[in-house]
Each structure stands twice: as structure tokens, then as C-alpha cells.
Amino acid sequence: MHVSDKAEDIAGVDDDADTRAIRDGVRALCARFPGTYWRDKDRARAYPAEFVTALTEAGYLAALIPETYGGSGLGLTQAIAILEEIHRSGGNGAACHAQMYTMGAILRHGSEDQKRRWLPEIAAGRLRLQAFGVTEPTSGTDTLALRTTARRDGDAYVITGQKIWTSRAEHSDLMLLLARTTPREHVARKGEGLSVFVVDMRAAPGDRLTIRPIRTMLNHATTEVFLDGLRVPADCLVGTEGQGFRVILDGMNAERVLIAAECIGDARWFIDRARTYACERTVFGRPIGQNQGIQFPIAEAYIATEAADLMVRKAARLFDAGRHIGAEANMAKHLAATASWQAADMCLQTHGGFGFAEDYDIERKFRETRLYQVAPISTNLILSYVAEHVLGLPRSF
Ligand SMILES: Cc1cc2nc3c(=O)[nH]c(=O)nc-3n(C[C@H](O)[C@H](O)[C@H](O)COP(=O)(O)OP(=O)(O)OC[C@H]3O[C@@H](n4cnc5c(N)ncnc54)[C@H](O)[C@@H]3O)c2cc1C
User: Domains (ranges, CATH) in the chain?
Assistant: First the structure.
């Protein structure tokens, strides 16, 4: 058996026939969006609208919405295949991955009325819920210290504050927003007093909601959002007032597993590129891949990726079985992000000077995959979660 067939077999060993069909479908779609497409968008820092439309029309972004509400009713096990394939093709799911999972807050914690109002529209792609306003400039990772407030006023809440790194806010109709409804000093437990709202940004007056793009090292459509006395109807509250932190945490585990799958896709893309180049590039009269100094880092990156993929699949499987996956989701994200960064560095090194040339796409993917060390959760915070909540070590902060 040729080595590439073997690698393909190992990667797909746990897939059932449905998942394999999903992978084939996503691969075919992504083939319409080659490196030149992503390179042009990257240079212009432009939103890949055509790609997002194609993915929406094919129904992939509605994978996790139950059939009752117009979606495909698939599990996380299938959804990870979609995002992995996008990244494995050289593309980037970050333009729209949140449309897949942000609605989970409504699905798991919303009222029946809210589900009927929003989910079928999201499933059909007529409504975009892909902005997630949690991070703030002053509180950063310390989410419970966030300062944005929502004050009840009759049949509405009045929201004031600032969010940062709210990705895709300019390309979303709705935003899931976390705000404080009870001052921190008035709550019995530190996780209480925060609430989650679905904010309809289309209905927001310009002087009450301002979105400012932030130009970043990668093409990510991220922004800062300023809220100045924005009134939202009270029926936009998701779940119970004061219990919003729990609503957000539930969704974050699914998000971590999905993003871990993007890292696996990135890693496999880097490894494919590196081994192809290592076989083709001849220096000193032989392919560079004949040197073990080149072979071993490729093999190491491959092994790390396959090991990480096992944890990603385990986390997805447990999530689909209704289990709490705090530990597995964090470990999957950490292992996968580490593997993708290892593969990125290896791939750049294997390509020598050509790795720095835009036309090879490696430097773009290198910048893109670096993000996962920091967002949606940074490495240190995962390690502290595992140390404290899994291993029972003393609380650090
Ligand atoms: C491109 C991009 C897109 C993003 N999209 C979104 C989005 O859509 N919605 C959203 O809400 N947020 C988003 N984020 C925010 C992202 O989740 C945060 O940047 C991330 O969680 C880290 O928070 P911070 O930047 O405030 O870092 P900080 O909290 O300021 O931390 C800085 C560094 O210190 C470390 N650190 C902090 N405290 C400790 C500690 N106690 N022990 C050890 N180390 C510590 C951190 O690990 C980190 O490395 C995005 C960020 C980026 C860059």
C-alpha cells in the first residue's frame, strides 16, 4: 500500500458511511475555493462571502440544528468532519463556524417560543447568528469581571458597555451577548448575576450600537462593539436571568471541540504539503525528504495529529451521548492546537525560503493556525482547568 493511502485509512478509520459522505461533499465544495481564493481574501482582509453562501446553501451550517427546527439533526461527531475538511482543503471555517454552534444556547436554554422564532430561520440561512460577545477589553479571560450591564426597564433591558474581539459582528444579524444583570457584590455565588441575550443588531439604532473592525494578523473579520443604552426586548433573554454564565459555558465545550477539529484539518494540510514538497524538492542531488532531519519532524507532526484526533473524536462522541465534556473538550482543543502549530512550524521549515512566499499559502495558514493558542481559550487557561478541575490541584485564581 502506498503511504498516502495508509495515512488516509488511519485518518478515516472511525468514520461511518454517513460521515464519509459528508467529508466527500465538503471536499467537493471546497475544491471550488482554491488557494488563490483564500489568498485574495487574505490580502484584502475581505469576508469570504461566496464560500459562506455555498456552505449555507449546502446546509452544512445547519448540521447541529434538530430536524424539527429545519436543520439536519446531526451530532458533533459529524459536525467536526465538516470543519476539519474545510481546513484540510486549505480554507478557513472561522468566517462562519459560529453559525453552527452559537445557536446551541437557544437550543439548550431557550424557551419553545424562542426556538420556533429563531432556529428555522438560522437553519435556512436567512438569519445569521454568528457573533458572540463575551470578551471585554478590561476583563479579558476573567469573564466574571465583565463590565457590560443590562438593566431591566419595563418590557426591555437597557445594555451599556463594550465588547472586544467580537468576530463576524458585521456579518451577523444577531449577536449572543453576555452582560451583568446583578452587580457582582450582590450575588451569593460568583458565577451568578450574568445573563445572556440575543441582540438583533439590525434593529439597533446606529448611535446605540457601534461596530469597529480590528485589523489583525489574520483575516478574521473581528471587531469591537460599543453598546450605549441599547434597548432590547425582555423576551431576548435566553434562560434564567442571572444564570447566563452556565448558558455560555455549556456552549463553549462544543465550540472547543469544533475548533479542535479545525486544528486537525490545518495540521493535516501542513503535513500533506510538507511531505509532497519533501519528495519533490531536490538539493544536493537528492530529495530533501530523503534526509531524516526532514523526515522526522514530518513523522512527529503526523503522530501528534493522529493522537490529538483521537481525543477530538472522543470528546465529540461523549457530547453526542449527553455527557459533560469539560475535561475532554479542553484537552482536545489543547492537543489539536498544539499539533497544528507543530505541523505549521515543521511545514514552514521544510519549505525553506519558499514557505515565506504568499503563493504557497503556508505563511497564511501559519498565521491562521497560530490563533488557536489564544482563542477561543488560551493555553494557560486550559492547563489551569485540567490542573484544578481534573487533577484536584489547589485553585490558582
Ligand atoms: C482573532 C480573535 C477572535 C476572537 N473572537 C472572539 C469572539 O468572537 N468572541 C469573544 O467573546 N472573544 C473572542 N476572542 C477573544 C479570545 O477568546 C481572547 O483573546 C482569549 O480568551 C484570551 O483573552 P485575552 O485576549 O483577554 O487575554 P488575557 O486574559 O489578557 O490574557 C493574556 C495572557 O495571559 C494569560 N493569563 C491570564 N490570566 C492567567 C492566569 N491566571 N494564569 C496564567 N496565565 C494567565 C493568558 O493565557 C494569555 O496568554 C477573539 C480573539 C481573537 C484574537
Answer: 3-124 (1.10.540.10), 130-243 (2.40.110.10), 246-390 (1.20.140.10)
Q: In angstroms, what is the span from residue 165 Cα to ligand 1's centroid?
A: 9
248: Cβ below 6 Å to ligand 1?
no
Check if 192 is active-site.
Answer: no
CB of 194 within 8 A of CB of 242?
A: yes
Beta-bridge mates of residue 287: 282
| Best mutation site among 367, 370, 374, 382 for ligand 1 pocket (most ligand atoms within 8 Å of CB) | 374
Question: In the prediction, which pLDDT does 12 show?
Answer: 79
Residue nearest to atom 3 of ligand 1 (CA): 165
Ligand 1 centroid vs 182 CA: distance in angstroms?
24
Q: How far apart are CA 87 and CA 89, in angstroms?
A: 5
- Model confidence at 9, in pLDDT bands (50, 70, 90)? confident
Q: Which residues contact 352 (CB under 8 A, 6 or more apart)?
A: 281
C-alpha–C-alpha distance, residues 248 and 6, integer Å:
40
Ligand 1 contact, 204 CB (< 6 A):
no
Cα–ligand 1 centroid distance for 333 (angstroms): 15
pLDDT band at 4 (very low <50, low <70, confident <90, very high): low
Question: What would the 3-class secondary structure string for 149-176 be?
Answer: EEEEECCEEEEEEEEECCCCHHHCCEEE
3-class DSSP state for residue 376? coil
- How many whole angstroms separate alpha carbon 352 and alpha carbon 340? 19
**Minimum CA distance residue for ligand 1 atom 36:** 380
Which pLDDT value is given to residue 7?
Answer: 81
Residues 29, 53 contacting (CB under 8 angstroms) = no
Ligand 1 within 6 A of CB of 96: no
How far is Cα 160 from Cα 69, in angstroms, rounded to an integer?
32
149 near 178, Cβ under 8 Å?
Answer: no
Write out pLDDT tens, residues 119-131: 999 999 999 999 9
Q: For 10, phi and psi rounded to 5 degrees?
A: -65, -45
- Per-residue pLDDT of 242-251, as tens digits, reads 999 999 998 9
CA distance 306 to 214: 35
Is residue 97 classed as helix, strand or coil in its secondary structure? helix
